[in-house]
Amino acid sequence: MAIDTHNVYALILGGGRGTRLFPLTKDRAKPAVPLAGKYRLIDVPISNCINSKIAKIFVLTQFNSESLHRHIHNAYKFDIFSDSFVEILAAEQTEGRMDWYQGTADAVRRNLWHLTDPDIDRVLILSGDQLYRLDFQDVLRTHEETRAELTLAATPMRPEEADRVGVLKIDRHFRVVDFVEKPDRSQVRDLIVQGEDLEPMGIKASGPVVLASMGIYLFNRTRLELALDNEMADFGRNVIPWCIQHMRAFIHLFDGYWEDVGSIRTFFNANMALTGDTPTFDFYEPGKPIYTHPRFLPNTRILDNANVGNSLFSEGCLIQGAHIERSVIGVRSVVCQGSELNEVIMMGQDNYETVTQREESAGLPARGVGQNCKITRAIIDKNARIGDGVVITSHAGKPNEDGDCYFVRDGIVIIPKNAVVPDGRKI
Prior knowledge:
Number of helices: 9
CATH topology of the largest domain: Spore Coat Polysaccharide Biosynthesis Protein SpsA, Chain A
CATH superfamily of the largest domain: Spore Coat Polysaccharide Biosynthesis Protein SpsA, Chain A
């Protein structure tokens, strides 16, 4: 049975610096980072909301937010006779506060005054940098059935991975009784549950697991206002532990694919997983698309005996006599004759180069990948120019590095946005 969602606001947190995703966040907000060739990270939580019939959506932004604002403006336009919206709430100075957001909770607190609809009595708080599919009507159903004041979505995870997430502890009624942010090994022992004990909640798991918080919180609106009537800055470190002690907090368990793509390593791995024969996350599900900005681009052309395998190609690309394996190729990408790409994320171009633009950039390589390049395990950001004969090798196991036209993070070479890699360069 469908749950009424007209009384729900969704708040998507997109204001952090995104330092773990640098240099992809050097010139853009973290939720605006391109994903899977044609999407942006922000498209995932917004699409989950729309597919769950939640269509009163605020996106909280702060750093490098221009491209995020432009993307949302171009992608999410509702019927003028509908009360649906996706609205940006940018950090702003007021008479009361002149500084930046001090954390996730502070960002929500300082925007509560925008939530003016008196009929709204639920607030769903989401992260802008996670990859998953979840019907939030299921979360609302759990919230109502348990008479919760706060419902926290969580997913089973192996104990050895617990040090990178917040972990919930529940009692036999599935009420949340404790929360530990990134527990150490000694703390994990007290947080382990047996997967078989989760079967009453429809979760198929076996052996010891911990319950990792997904950073998805559903509050009764009045309880959210109470929880933020203080100076606590962060949900995970401050607000959620306080709420567990003072409110009816219950868990909603989810055993589908979920990945926090907040670092270069997890971002790269999530994209590579999409190239598999049976990807754990699929952007296509009948009736539940992942929405994004429609571009009206021509078909991708693969010419001159190009050889491609296990890769994703977005619209408007030109692949000419190249060999591409296990790669994600973004919109308007160009890969020239004789080049070989293996485990490469190529984000493409914001627009095609015109003849005039090529003449003005005389002496520089054209945008895209030139001829006879060999590129392995790399991320090539938008509008980058890779000259002929460039070699980029895997840096797996090597330390981080900042070069003149590249960066290395987590063993992955990143060519930043608008960078120029000259002919014959070896990285």
